[in-house]
Amino acid sequence: MFQAVLGAYGLHAEKCKIEPFGSGLINHTWKIYHDGLAYILQEVNTMVFRQPEHIAQNIKAIKAYLDQTAPDYLFVAPVKASNGDDFVVISDHFYRIFPFVENSCTIDFVLRPGQAYQAAKQFGQFACMLSDFDVQKLKPTIKDFHNLPLRIAQFKKALTQAGNERIREAKFAIGEIIRYYDIEEQYVQLVSSGALHLRAVHHDTKISNVLLQAETGKGLCVIDLDTVMPGYFISDVGDMLRTYLSEANEEEKDFDKIAIRAHVFAAIYKGYMEEMGHVLTPIEKQFFLYSGKFMIYMQAVRFITDFLNGNIYYKTNYPGQNLVRGLNQIDLLNKYVAKQPEFEEMIRGIDRIRETAHPIPGPLRST
Ligand code: GN1
Ligand code: MG
Hints:
single chain, three-stranded antiparallel β-sheet
């Protein structure tokens, strides 16, 4: 495989050092060293991305737009194959290569609030740069990706199809998912009322999708644009809250280690709002906190559904892993909900400081 894929880019597999890279649950990724240069090779999972050419088209459209409107932005575009294409298809498998950005690094876990701040600023900047881009030009790369009612429908269907043993094992998790159905009801209400604007949304804002300057840790740009498509800002903010706030990640089996870091919340809010505060509508801003519930809950539903279905979607390393992940997310959700009053207070505090620094202009102020 490597020979054919790398050959399509004019690289010689026998001269390359190839190592597995990253920790994604969907695609396969390798780092390739060739002639003093480094690349990232990815095989796109076409069971998940049914029309991978949509990914390539979206990235091309965004690149063309940003080349015009934000030429200084570091946009990591795919390397062109020898035939000029952005990807190659070998035996029905879909591959692409990215340049490895020198002096950059990624991290897998937020250790300090400053890192959450940098990432939130990067995802905020990306959303802001695309706020006037015509989202209708973006094709959905995964249909109904963050459509919570559909995820609930899939969960209900899995409940009717799963064997008794799995239902018994997941009993507590199932009860918790049902107990939180109001999160879905609120989403339906939000979308149907038009409160959320359709925007270009990244949809996968985990910390490892931000390139940082290796020496300073300053954010450089966002990567992994496979799921950039029309959506709502709650997906991006919500997945940051889901993946940055906790002291332990979604794989943790010891739930005592799941603890919410309030200073990380403040960093995400500050970083994102510095970039998107003037783009989001006042109504959208009211759902900043809701976005955490929305994404943590949806991830719990997706993990538990996959467990009930016999683990057909997410890569797993041991039986019951999706149940552990789902229970982990439910624990996180409970702890997040308990923190809401504290976070509301923090938001008010940060907004007050921002307003003092940038007073609202116009008739609202009489001086
Ligand atoms: C998948 O493969 P990765 O880690 O980038 C999933 C996300 C989930 C995440 C949970 C296309 O992302 O939606 O939040 O696992 N991506 C897809 O770890 O389903
Ligand atoms: Mg991804």
